Amino acid sequence: MKKISLLLMILAAALLLPNTAFMQGKPKLAIFPITGGTGNDGATIAELFSHDPEISRVFSRVPRISSDAITKEQQFQRSTGLTDSDTISRLGRQSEADYVVAGHIYVLGSSKLLLITIIHVESFQQIAGDYREFKKIEEVEDMLPDIAKRIVDAVKIDRSNLDGLALFPFDIPKSDANKVDKNDAEVLAQILATEIANSGKYAVLPRMSGLKQVMEEHNIQSSGLLNPGNIKKIGKALNAKYVLDAKVTSLGGKKKFNVNVIDVELGTMLEGEKGGASEDYINIDEGLIKMALLARKLTGTETAKMPANFVRIEGGTFIMGSPASEGGAPGEVQHKVTVSSFYMSKYQVTQKEYKEVMGTNPSYFKGDNLPVEQVSWYDAIEYCNKRSIKEGLTPAYTIVKDRNDPNNTETFDNVRWIVTWNRYANGYRLPTEAEWEYACRAGTTTPFSTGNNITTEQANYSGTNPYNNNAKGIYREKTTTVGSFKPNPWGLYDMHGNVEEWCWDWYGDYSKADQTNPVGAVSGNGRVSRGGSWGATGWDLRSASRFSAVRPDLRGSHWGVRLVRP
After folding, report:
1. Whether residue 265 is found in the same domain as residue 175
2. How many helices and strands, by DSSP H and E, does the chain display?
3. Mean pLDDT by 10-residue block, N- to C-terminus, for the chain (566 residues)?
4. What is the reported pTM?
5. Does 231 map to a domain?
6. What residue numbers bound the domain in which 22 lies?
7. Closest Cα partner for 164 from 265, 243, 233?
């Protein structure tokens, strides 16, 4: 009982200055082993992290010690990945550290998710974190500088006056115990806690592994846990102004999470987006993306408004590729694909938009409202990142320019940067090939969104080469102002013709199996571009047509950009 009271006293002091050690010189940092994953992934990442130049510059590192030895000696309950801030803080005290970095690697299908968190030992607060998807350990090495910078920046922030927010463990109703993976609930909770901590809007208090003890100490009944009376008792015991409650349930063939932020004093949910929301998801990948977006809305950090010229594309399932009757290419094998919702620009990026961000206009055909062209795939990636930064968004891509991409098999590519996509970022990016075709079709199953044929009154292309021996049209031999023709059924302009649009994917053979949010081949000698251009034939403009193995460093007046955002 004394230990419990001591714990509560420490929690009551949770709003101590997390950056006190920073003011007194280099704070001491303990880096604990990163658990989970396969093989030596965790140990390798922890070692890389401990030798990061920025970490070494800012922190005085205490010797890396075995968390297993401490947990055994102190009889601590070890939570998944040592990501329970209460446990981490107590371990940090044993190592005489001001801050503790810990993490876990979650295996998500063919990829892995690295979650890193930093805890302030004195206050038990989780002050920052990061999470990144990866397939190879080399990818993590490229991401670590960004992760280290986030942690260094977070330590410098004074959090003494922030309202405390206590996160309860995610609940899975008994009726759904066999339908919802506990690992899914855990990683969703971690993403939510990390985003809230990164926002700097709340003091994120421990995700209570000791919640049961607190309830016993204060004679709180577990039945009807979150009734107003219990919320007040638990919240005050944790010195929290707000309590966050969440649960994960099954919903037919999908899953659903529900997040509520409750005012401890009033016992009621906050109003509007800050009070929480619910989202359904197809698989854990989509769940994590939606949880990240929900957390940013909840904390008010999603400040960048979606541009007025972006259209919401509601997710769904469609048949990707073309039937034999359409006369398509061998690489257009039909298969069922499900994509999540996203936003897509109504128009191709204009020369004015490109110059405002990049400072140059590389286009051959000049005009502010003409589509920008003569941009390579790499140019498009850089434009996405720079525009994201300009608008206060998290860039979608990590770009490494001083090493060649081992997944790029095109020896004539003169750039060969390593580019990795952070799917949980909220910045601008290129569409995947599946997203592009889904949006282009706009619910249609014909060769074009216009039907079985497309004329030069409906799109800008080489009308002297019509599709399927249809009547010839004009050949303008240049780009046209974006939005010159009628949009497709979902309000998107120039999805057929004008300039080809770069996609994220390496070109590769389709899988015949059903796919959910596919992202293309792992490697290749070219990226995919879609839609056809002012100089393309009618056949090239089909919704299913793939421009395969285009060298990503090539520039030409046929290639342009269309943006998407999550």
Report:
1. yes
2. 14, 23
3. 35 40 70 83 86 90 59 40 55 78 84 88 85 89 89 84 83 85 86 90 68 54 59 77 88 87 86 84 89 88 79 96 93 96 97 98 98 98 97 93 94 95 94 98 98 97 95 97 98 98 96 93 95 97 89 96 96
4. 0.86
5. yes
6. 17-159
7. 243
